[in-house]
Amino acid sequence: MQDKLPIAIVSDIVCPWCFIGKARLETALAQHGLTDRVAITWLPYELNPDMPPEGMDRTAYLDAKFGPGKRKEIEIRLSEAALESGVTFNWSKVTKSVNTRMAHMLVAAASTVQRGSDMKAALFKAYFQEGRDIGDLETLVAIAVEQGFDEQAARDELTNDELRETVIGLEDHARKVGVTGVPFFIIDGKLAVSGAQTPEVWAQVFAQVMRDAA
How far apart are alpha carbons 121 and 107 in whole angstroms? Predict the structure, then answer.
């Protein structure tokens, strides 16, 4: 593999399994000495495309989606899976389910200067560990500034209709090619891996990629 191996990751920022999946992939890449030999592209997906722009109370949303009382059970299962991945969730702070359209726009804007992964990491942290409202324009501008971006430039990107349409187009494309759940990984444009797979599974995937390349 002389050139960098392209990995496209379809995910949503409010998807806890996407946060875990990212950490597991990074662990696997490090274990195999591949961290600097891959080129990661982040593609948008909205688990809740009908979420109102102002978001809604997370407990009410999860109760409606999974049934009352299931939230705690889900959180415990996620925390256990996260623990072995080195990810932490601060559930007491995550009080809001948010619309992620603008957050995806911010990742897309950062990706144009090869900072997509940094922005994605910052947004996961902001939402799952700090409980920040990543559906809110001012919060996203603040996160962009923390990541070293110009405040006005960030604001312009987040209110850019063309960028919004690009993100919507990418989401539509993901659904058209059959992505029904996230995280979803496309390796070298041809090998698909669905779900937050463990480093052991990734080892098999990398072996398959090497065989294909040979």
Answer: 10
